[in-house]
Amino acid sequence: ANMAANILCVFLFLCSAARVIVACNLCPKHSDVCMRSERVHYNKMPGGLDTWGAAEAFHATRIDWIYTTNATWIDNAHKRGYKITAAMNANLPDPGSSSKYTIGRMLNVKGERITAPWMRTWEVAPYYGCINNPAYRKLAFNFAENLLRVGSDAIQHDDPATNGEGVTWDGGNPNSSGCYCKYCAAGFTQYLLRELNNSSIQRLNISSTFNYTQYVSDTESNSTMKYKELRSYFVFFQQASTEAYVRDLRAFLNVYTNNQGKPNVTLSCNNGGRWSTPYPLFDYGLGELSKSDATRYGLLGIFRDNVPPGKFQVMTMPKEAVISKSDIFLTRWSIALSYAIGANMLVPWDIYLPTPNASRFFGNASQFADLYDLVRLNAPLYDKMEPSSSTPGKIMSGMKLVHNSSIDSHRFRTPNDLPPHNVSGKTFHVRSIYGCASECYLDSKCLGIVLAGSDCSVLYELTETYTLETALSYQRTGHGPSSAGVKSNLSSLDFFPRDNFESANNNDTVVIHCVDYGYTLGNMEQTTVEVQIEYQKFFKRTCDNITVVQISPSDPHSKQKLDVRCTQTTMNVSITTPTPYSLIVMQ
Predict the structure, then answer these.
(1) How many angstroms separate the CA atoms of 68 and 62, rounded?
(2) What is the dihedral sign for C-alpha 470, 392, 554, 339?
(3) In Å, how far from its chain's centre is CA 567?
């Protein structure tokens, strides 16, 4: 259905661009389509596709995070034009076996092998390797080198935090976390003697014969100050050990690649969208996305705001144990948003889903392929375009703090106030002020918000009152979240402009990525949106000499020319809102 609406979206552009530079030689490009195949599927999986069929149907350019050492298959992949990122993990099996985990394993304080909490119910428990154990280190390094020998372009490391992660399992319970093997115990003693000053060494009674594993086993109470202090040092030690493992692995592999006349190895890791230690030691993140993080600001943080300079982030589809119809809408929107802000999302095929089912999701091409087709058909609009300097600003832009009741004893009235003093609106729990602001942005009736603890009130009326409670009151000053000056009080559209302003000529191109958040709510209605652009900020030529077209996933092969109405400083165009994604190209 077409609903005519007059929605004014104002773009305020700056010509200088904030560049996102990814130093990694084999990291995904902005226009790449990254597909996962856990292993090579020669037979058709649910949905009717094998690995080759899925790669073709989803327009993949890379097959990442695949467990294979089949040199013939990898060579075939290269001949078909695919880059391959073969995978290793923190629980590699013993050489010559696919289900035996005995060499150099992580141990609890009792000397028993351990694995991750989510793997304990598996039919064969894949015990983690200890990266302080020379035998497992050799196993892991040789495995990784072999991945390069059989032709893998890069290497994905699943669960790369290894010991630094294992030490935190079950809150650090020594019976199910670790590692407490003899190599970790000896390494920790050396760590303490090296890192602590003399007074701390004497106070804690540390000598060259100190054995932390024995200390933990013999100590009845874990609440003493000494136990807690040593425990904190032990966590730091295991994190430092993990960092050393990653650095040493990279150096070991670089020797091999350099001897082959190739650049240094490219390493990615499953970082879950986080960049705490040891993830910055990898070239890019290839992580798993929780459904709870698949929000506008959650994805902006994961794909853009929290990514260190020179790094790149790819994520899976939003995941939960069972995928519903609404999850398909959310996934399509998430794919669109990831590409709009210059990142990538793995094709939703052969994706591991959380416990208790721990099943795998194989999406159909009919559900998602059109989005990837749009990207591939317009690859230059992604690879040669960088985010404009006026891309979305602070999350709270468009919201003005009016009352801080802990300071001025005022706030706006809320729907929860006792009648007749309550106002129209709605109240619900949120995790942050940003979630509260997001709800206001999506509600055309919202005039402001009040945040009191975790209670967010979206207000349809603004009435001031004295108060004894601690609360923050914001007034909505713009027309929604600021995205390069986009303001719309009646639309759930987000706009992300990208440009190619490297050259100082009159042939510059501006691409505006339009993403419709309302699509995630099942809103299939299309709306006519009036877009106003201050073209003189972008172009040296007149408005009459600028061509504007719209490209949508529904027909990615065609470019719909848009009528332009000009003023002295602005151009006005009408577009049909995307479901959930389209491009406005101005040249």
Answers:
(1) 15
(2) negative
(3) 41
What would you report as the CA-atom Rg of the chain, rounded to the nearest whole angstrom?
27
Q: Which amino acid is at 207?
A: S
Q: What is the pLDDT of residues 441-482, one digit of tens each?
A: 777 789 999 999 888 999 999 998 887 778 999 998 754 444
- Residues found in the chain: 587
What is the widest separation between alpha-carbon atoms in the chain? 82
Residue 353 in tokens: 């889903």
**Segment 16-65, tens digit of pLDDT:** 333 344 457 799 999 999 999 999 999 999 999 999 999 999 999 999 99
Q: How far is CA 217 from the centre of its chain?
A: 40
Q: What would the two tokens of residue 557 be?
A: 């092969």
**β-sheet bridge partners, residue 85:** 64, 154
Assign residue 21 a region (left: φ > 0; alpha: ψ between -120 and 50; beta: otherwise).
Answer: beta
Q: Which residues contact 389 (CB under 8 A, 6 or more apart)?
A: 14, 16, 17, 18
**Which positions ≥6 away from 79 have C-beta within 8 Å?**
none
Close Cβ partners of 390 (under 8 Å, ≥ 6 residues apart): 12, 13, 14, 484, 485, 497
User: How far, CA to CA in Å, does 552 sit from each of 347, 378, 470?
Assistant: 19, 11, 47
Instruction: Note the pLDDT tens digit of each residue in 242-297.
Output: 999 999 999 999 999 999 999 999 999 999 999 999 999 999 999 999 998 898 77
Cα(532)–Cα(536) distance, rounded to whole angstroms? 12
